[in-house]
Amino acid sequence: MIARFIAANPRERVRPILDSILSSxxxxxxxxxxxxxxxxxxxxxRHAERLxxxxxxxxxxxxxxxxxxxxxxxxxxxxxxxxxxxxVKTPVEKHVGRGLMHSKVFFARAGDRCWLWTGSHxxxxxxxxxxxxxxxxxxxxTVNEEPFQNAxxxxxxxxxxxxxxxxxxxxxxxxxxxxx
Length: 180
Fold this sequence. Notes:
The protein has helices at residues 15-24, 38-45, 48-51, 68-77, 125-128, 146-160, and strands spanning 2-6, 28-33, 57-61, 82-85, 92-93, 97-98, 104-110, 113-119, 136-142, 163-164. It is of the alpha+beta class. It has an eight-stranded mixed beta sheet, with helices on both faces. The protein has a two-stranded antiparallel sheet with strand order 5-6. The model has no long low-confidence stretch (mean pLDDT 90).
């Protein structure tokens, strides 16, 4: 397995790196990422063909700054493979909000070769274009190695807790309920 730290320069523009990883996922792309805006949708639209594959999917948290318009755009490119994680209702911290899926995990597979990107990057232009200070770890190896097995289990769990995005029947954006 090869491990690489991204990025020694925390303002590195990582979009080309992430774009290359997703391009490698000829058999599967699986993503669980807390937030998606129009900048992230533009990145993912380039990979729509692979995101339409039966094992591919995108899970995002239904929480601002996630953009309903960006989700609608992606639904048009790979309908049925865009999921909303609605979070958990309790416990909710006073002045903080409810729990949410906060993962940033990107998995790409070609045969038994895998790439796994995990770190602080959301699917936003600020994260991928060097505005925010961000960091990630990129692993490259084979599907039978433990980190990749654990990552796909995590991704599938996030998906199992989510609902398929339907642009005609969007849930309201959540409001915090003070229970703690």
